[in-house]
Write a structure and sequence with these properties.
The complex is a heterotetramer, with 2 copies of chain A and 2 copies of chain B. Helix content of chain A is 34%, strand content 24%. Chain A is α+β, with helices and mostly antiparallel strands. In chain A, helix 7 packs across helix 8 and helix 12 packs antiparallel against helix 13. Chain B is 2% helix and 62% strand. Classes of the chains: A alpha+beta, B mainly beta.
Chain lengths: 497, 169, 497, 169
């Protein structure tokens, strides 16, 4: 069935990314937005846009009935869920098929199967894919978790069965910390996914997090598009991703590819998906989970393979056969992604405020996927991810050099961002060597630099002096009708830190 | 005008006077810790300065809230207090024992409070949980002490900088 | 000799492009700027920046002695000339070698040889490379030109021997128009290159302009990096370029590559260069000239080969051997470039003014090379080229779709730009088919569209109504000290059109 | 308020009234050629509007100089005159014969002038050469006629819109 109108059930950079693919395919894009997002970039970018409710996502972006209603009313044939929000909620594909809409993603059965992490682990174990030792059933109480942890041995990892994106995840080093961690994880899981089920597994020390990107059509064709290395994580939240991985050679890539394709095949999964593995220091790999959606980090794969994954998703959903064969997928150069969040770069505490000045990087090898614009209000309601910078180079060294250049060019004023953190990652010796694991973030220190202390002090003094001399009158404030306050007062009033 | 600029580890005295306003920049005479320099400033936007000093070109971004300045250049970030020299001598020192007000480090929802007035806490104990941007953040005691006051209730929405608790340390 | 400090003897997007390569190679970049360019992007981007004189380029960017003086004083080992200005003036490399500086480009002898278009044609003819019939000596007077034109037959082309970039070029259809055209061409050549010499050749009807990118090291190694199709031209000024060309097959590419490498070899040329050809409707190719510099359109080659040409230039200039062999150069997908100029998209008349709002495109496959920023003043002193958009796709169709998306995303307020013109090119049937020639621009019409007439009228009425209600006081004007006037008054005052 | 918006080929009557100012947008009641619509406007910047009308989302850029508007949306560019309806009836028509003032289409340097007062010229004849951004631009007669006045001298710098010559057509 030809798709020429798609509702994008998301916001931020991923909604813009999908709308861009629609534009290139001559498909009408239909956005939905909460009251707080009226001026957001995804609303302005889409061909059509409909309000969906109040700012809290529970009353807007997470309300399946409203999304289906708008999709039907606006004559869409399909819904793209992006990532996060409803992307891994099987009720959305189910509602889609009842309403006669195409869900751009797997069937609700495959999603439900893989979304239940304990069921998924059982299935993979049966299929002969290595898994990490752990408990396969949701744990009812903290006591049950404690006895399971005793059997497996500390450290253990608590994870939401409905989870993803690092939410509802806790590592527990010793028995006395289990109870509090279990309760926090439950609460977070409930808040994030509407399901408080928690399971537990052995915590591998210093593993690497490596995942395989998959495309599977509805005619049984499955290919992989190489691995992504996602070991730069904090609280199980990925911060930097790259492809290819420094430790994956031809043989390991082939073997992980076979396992990933098998995992997709046995779960009856279609569309784009990712099979996540942990790889230990002996380069043994263990199945972790399937991310039943497009991932935040998909652009690194796009840059080294030349494949537009969102377009492929749409083509698969419309029933087309994959035009790509496994032999068509090569590796051209190297790509790295940095996730730019509205967070303090030291404490990772969220930062909110109005984006007052925005200069995005560009030039050779740099791609930006952004959900923000000048005058955009970063609010407390949604995920702090503002944008992603992706750098391509003929080799990893060039990709790193270009990423450093891009981070240096990138100016976001009005909120704190993780850009300074990413600079530290990119010059970290372990990262540069390629020999790093999921513990790398804890080793990245904020090194006090004094190189430009004097120039910074001079600039501060100049601004202090100039701003004392500029007096604004109340008349000027009348121009606030144009929302210019951020720009006009930017130098003397700061929001967000 | 002279300012005392401090990042906690270093304190610099910066004296600035405007020499000339030209069509495309302004020239300032600066004296920093006794060294004199003439610099060219072009203010691209309120928060964005181009500085040329001895031929070196710097893009400097300056944001501030009252006397607290955040200055970025060439990927480095400095947090300064900037005080008019005339004010320095009259300002009194802050005490660092006694009452410690714990403020919300970000806007969010108070999910749960683990302590009440009069409780004895150890440094590192979780005092309350603040949810923001879908993450649950545990707010820990910065030092051991006794809870003097709990300023918020569970379920309350707080802004960045709002008082959460008062601790006697 | 290792290069770790480079003076960039240019401005605008190409100066930024070179500074970006320096950043990635850990080389200190030193900018020069005229008084008018104090706040320009290249000055802010470079590590160091020195004022070089008043706004007119004849008193600043074209003054060799000042450039050499600053390079020596600031301890640079090398000078990169970019394109335009002094890039093809052999006096600059000559002055460099006298001052002990490396010129990042060919030797002054090779440049002088190729810069004299009539000498170059003689040399190529001798080397067996096909050339267009014409007069090989500079023409002293209009009468001399007239008699030469009679011999060859009209139409003829007048070209500056020192030329490039479409300046000093005139096509003459009939004898009565020769005199005026000859004088205009001389005047333009004198103003642009400081040399009024004009020569004349047969004007090929409906040819395609196709050029080969070359890299040649100082050890005799020469490779080509495929062709670029540059047939979308107006007044011999390229507007859109792409690689690969739709009419170049493997065999033609190989034969043009051999000819181009031979042209470079016989002229003793080193560094990056381009050999331009005209290709007639029978796919016969004729040598046109060698562009002895990096070209505006170099990014399309970078996108399909993965080679960073500016970095290669620097490595060659420092004496390194080419690390690339001919067999390493493939073609990955397709790339197109649109040159965005501050010109009226209908009349191509220059437009000057303050850039009040700037939103640059990004996302999959899009690269922007820009010399502008918000608050930048587009002045009458310099070339109207503001930036370039380059789109990559897995095939030409995807590259075109992405370019259209990028042009739609690109917002430059304050001056008129050629963006609407480029949109018309990209949907033009001849362009889309790939079957076009250098006459294509004259066939691209401004088609009046009425699709969004009502919405545009509504927006105009809303702005008219709102702006009548907003009264600015003279107090607000005091904030002009921050150059905010463009932003504050942007809605009610327009400069530049 | 009602406006008469014209692009030369089409003339539309647009009536607008503000219904409601909300935190993130403003609602307007519009009447365009008799059709009534309610639209949502969010003014991103002075020149940049986001309009949602019947669910269709438009980024519209509006620049104007007095009554001359340039409006861009979805890659299309419209040049309008926008006049308050109350002014339309009182405005007089412009003549299109008689004296024609030829203005500089761009800022630049007058390189050469080919005509003098009293010269008879044909449509398309080159009148003068204006150099801007390194290109020599020939200014041609828009119609046949007699040169009444030459307002500039060779070597002069002119701004966009400055008078160059007056032609009697």
């Amino acid at each position: 069935m030809e798709i020429n109108r798609i509702l994008i059930a998301n916001r931020g950079e991923i909604a813009v990314r999908i709308a861009r693919a629609c534009y290139e395919m001559d498909i009408t894009s239909v956005a939905v937005f909460s009251e707080a997002d009226r001026s957001a970039k995804h609303v302005r970018y889409a061909d059509e846009a409909y309000e969906i409710g109040p700012p809290p996502s529970g009353q807007s972006y997470l309300v399946i009935e409203k999304i289906i209603e708008i999709a039907v009313k606006s004559n869409c044939q399909a819904i793209h869920p992006g990532y996060g929000f409803l992307a891994e909620n099987p009720l959305l594909p189910e509602a889609c098929s009842k309403a006669g809409l195409i869900f751009i993603g797997p069937s609700h059965q495959a999603m439900a199967l893989l979304g239940n992490k304990t069921e998924a682990r059982k299935l993979m174990k049966k299929a002969g894919i290595p898994i990490i030792p752990g408990v396969m059933e949701p744990l009812a109480t903290a006591d049950e978790a404690a006895s399971a942890a005793e059997t497996i041995g500390y450290p253990v990892l608590l994870k939401a069965t409905a989870g993803g994106g690092g939410k509802g995840v806790r590592v527990v080093e010793s028995p006395e910390k289990l109870k509090s961690a279990f309760e926090r994880a439950q609460a977070e899981a409930l808040s994030a996914f509407g399901n408080s089920d928690i399971y537990l597994e052995k915590f591998l020390v210093k593993p690497r997090h490596i995942e395989m990107q998959i495309l599977a059509d509805e005619h049984g064709n499955i290919i992989h598009l190489n691995e992504r290395e996602c070991s730069v994580q904090r609280r199980y939240q990925k911060l930097v991703e790259e492809s290819p991985s420094c430790i994956v050679d031809e043989d390991l890539r082939r073997r992980m590819g076979v396992a990933a394709i098998e995992a997709i095949r046995v779960s009856g999964y279609t569309n784009a998906g990712t099979v996540e593995f942990l790889v230990d220091s002996d380069r043994k790999f263990f199945f972790l989970e399937v991310n039943a959606r497009l991932q935040v980090e998909h652009p690194v794969t796009e840059l080294i393979t030349g494949v537009d994954l969102v377009k492929e998703q749409i083509k698969i959903a419309s029933g087309e056969r994959l035009s790509l064969k496994q032999k068509d997928i090569g590796i051209n150069g190297a790509a790295i992604e940095c996730r730019i969040s509205a967070e303090d770069p030291e404490t990772f505490l969220p930062s909110v405020g109005l984006i007052r000045e925005l200069i995005e990087p560009s030039g050779p090898g740099i791609r930006v996927e952004s959900g923000i614009a000048e005058e955009y209000d970063v609010s407390v309601y949604y995920d702090p991810l503002l944008s992603k910078v992706i750098a391509w180079g003929k080799d990893r060294e060039e990709a790193i050099a270009r990423m450093l250049r891009a981070l240096n060019e990138y100016k976001i004023k009005g909120v704190k961002t993780t850009i300074p953190f990413h600079r530290r990652v990119l010059v970290n010796k372990a990262f540069v060597s390629g020999n790093y694991d999921t513990g790398i973030v804890s080793q990245i220190e904020h090194t006090e630099t004094e190189d430009h202390l004097e120039i910074a002090a001079i600039a501060a003094a100049i601004v202090a002096m100039t701003d004392e001399q500029v007096k604004f009158t109340s008349n000027a404030q009348k121009t606030e009708a144009w929302k210019l306050s951020g720009r006009i007062y930017g130098g003397i009033r700061s929001i967000g830190w | 005008m002279a300012y005392v600029v401090s990042d906690g580890n270093h304190t610099l005295r910066v004296e600035a006077s405007r020499l000339e306003v030209r069509p495309h920049d302004e020239l300032f005479q600066m004296e920093i810790d006794g060294k004199k320099k003439i610099i060219s400033i072009s203010r691209i936007s309120p928060a964005h300065l181009s500085i040329i000093i001895d031929g070196k070109s710097f893009n400097v971004e300056v944001e501030h809230f009252e006397k607290d300045y955040q200055v970025s250049t060439r990927g480095e970030v400095y947090n300064f207090s900037v005080v008019d020299e005339r004010e320095v001598t009259t300002s009194s020192e802050q005490s660092d024992s006694g009452e410690k007000v714990i403020k919300a480090p970000m806007p969010g929802l108070v999910v749960e409070i683990f302590v009440s007035e009069g409780d004895q806490v150890q440094a590192g104990d979780t005092l309350l949980v603040l949810e923001a941007m879908k993450m649950q953040n545990e707010i820990a005691a910065p030092a051991s002490g006794i809870i003097l006051n709990v300023s918020v209730k569970s379920g309350a929405t707080v802004n960045s900088g709002d008082d959460l608790l008062v601790l006697d340390i």
